[in-house]
Amino acid sequence: MQTLTVELGSRSYPIYIGENLLSRTDLITAHINSQRVVIISNETVAPLYLEQLKLSLTEFNCQEIILPDGEQYKNATTLESIFDALLEQRCPRDSTIIALGGGVVGDITGFASACYQRGVDFIQIPTTLLSQVDSSVGGKTGINHALGKNMIGAFYQPQCVVIDLNTLKTLPARELSAGVAEVIKYGLLADADFFSWLEKNIEKLMQLDPQCVSYAIQTSCQCKADIVASDEQEKSGRRALLNLGHTFGHAIETGMGYGVWLHGEAVACGMALAAEFSARTGWLCAQDVARIKALLAAAKLPTSLPDQLSAKDMLAVMAMDKKVQAGKLNLILLEQIGTAVMTHSYDRALLADMLTQLTSPGQ
Amino acid sequence: MQTLTVELGSRSYPIYIGENLLSRTDLITAHINSQRVVIISNETVAPLYLEQLKLSLTEFNCQEIILPDGEQYKNATTLESIFDALLEQRCPRDSTIIALGGGVVGDITGFASACYQRGVDFIQIPTTLLSQVDSSVGGKTGINHALGKNMIGAFYQPQCVVIDLNTLKTLPARELSAGVAEVIKYGLLADADFFSWLEKNIEKLMQLDPQCVSYAIQTSCQCKADIVASDEQEKSGRRALLNLGHTFGHAIETGMGYGVWLHGEAVACGMALAAEFSARTGWLCAQDVARIKALLAAAKLPTSLPDQLSAKDMLAVMAMDKKVQAGKLNLILLEQIGTAVMTHSYDRALLADMLTQLTSPGQ
Hints:
The structure is a homodimer.
Chain A: E1 2-6, E2 13-18, H1 25-29, E3 36-42, H2 46-55, E4 61-67, H3 76-88, E5 96-101, H4 103-115, E6 121-126, H5 129-135, E7 140-145, E8 148-155, E9 161-164, H6 173-190, H7 192-206, H8 210-230, H9 246-256, H10 263-280, H11 286-298, H12 311-318, E10 324-325, E11 328-329, E12 331-336, E13 339-343, H13 348-358
Parallel strand pairs in A: 2-9, 3-4, 3-5, 5-6
Antiparallel strand pairs in A: 1-2, 7-8, 10-11, 12-13
């Protein structure tokens, strides 16, 4: 087992990475401070891993809340159902809530934990590659709104993150690819060597070679932990670099309707667009754009926009991005593979032109 | 004008107290960091003070959201309507939200500000005595749930608090009394001299004598600011002392249905019950209980439970209080006037007996 630490002063916490961690009673219970535990999971993950986790928590008064599965349920209605259940079960403020599932379960559970009685302890047990390398680390929690993804939420850090590599064995291929999109993101924005490693090892990673998977997750989590430690609430701009591909990606997700494209798929396409726009802005060479698209394709990820979206739709959603400051949308672009920058100094007409060219004619 | 400071390191902020502050453009604009301002108020306060405030903000792009008036609207439905409006108006993350109104407006606006895009700046402009001396200071924000008051919320500090004493001139007498309940609370829990001053000056305070009002508000805010600075998130137990009367009070509010009793009325009755129970526990002398009830009565506040509530109802709601730890309900009791303590070492049977005696027979 590997242990990384997210360094946030009094709110620092460990990320445990290894096999069979769901059964490590000692690991999990060290972070629980009372008798009351509530596990929040979903209809897909609960049948696979809930009983195993509960066997590690037999010393606690342990209840569960099972949510429907899908990004389209990451909303105020589901959040309200969690509050109803917590209050009906009379959970006190010293309860610990455990998120067992992918990014949707982790984001909504973290936000519910942040708000319930103004904040109760919570633990992240991410069971998808995407949530293991990205959403479970760093304290961004929240829900979607019909007018924008993750528009309602909180910065709220967990007590610990427990990454059991075994859970990836039941992950559908499409979701594995979606997770690899975020892994590739770290190489692109901060670590050219890791990007090269991914180019060499993408086949083994997609086949869940244990050493490759473990290395990719550790490297990704370390990158994220470093960035979060330096800019927890996205104030200096450094944390915003983690949104590479996300402004385009969120526009795809919102425009298509939540749950139609997986988040990682939308981010993959978003990174291809960010690379393309970086090249058109004169920052990135065409060869690097080709390398990026090739790696995404090798991970079975989309690199072109869905037919249903128009440039106008995309730009309308992008105007609502959280990175809008003083009326200007900041974009995360690439200077080279391994170096991302946030900027609002780009040619808006060029952006509109590119999106018009890359969306279907007649839309 | 007086300026107090809530000392919270990088999140410290000033409380301005004085007359005509709504017109002090300089004061308010110093705390706004972009062009976008949203004022949230309610149907009662907006006709009285919204235009005056907007005249101080003519240099900004200023929009407004008007809520229905009443504790019964401090809920998830109203919160959702605020998010809808903010997103429809395309408010970016660097917007500033201003709460113009009483405790309900301040609490729900603060919570909306905490959650919208994971946190935007907000300013408290409390217009009732209760919100001026209590809810606008200290960063407790939130909404009610059918199963408990303030059960969903966040600790989220404002940029500043602007207390314009002129706004009290339009306050209904019943709401003035409700505010005085929280003023009396500070004397009871922390300052015996202030309690004595209130006994001498209660008539002048109720008649809004300017010097008396100003002194009462300053003393109350300073007491609250000191306690919040020492225990922002209610972890050491010191901040919990501010909940004197609130465990009983919340049970009355929740049991009667939100909005039937004013919050301050319920807290007044709750403080009378806390005093009575402190006496039955052998801590407070009968004479002090009589002084407390006399002062509350002089402020035209209730000191006995409503007929509709049974002891059983009260105890059921109290079991859900946020001060429940390790299965035990902590109560704030009085050792003497000016000295409150939080304790779970009390006789539960004695509590049930007292509530049974003080609620109507047959309920």
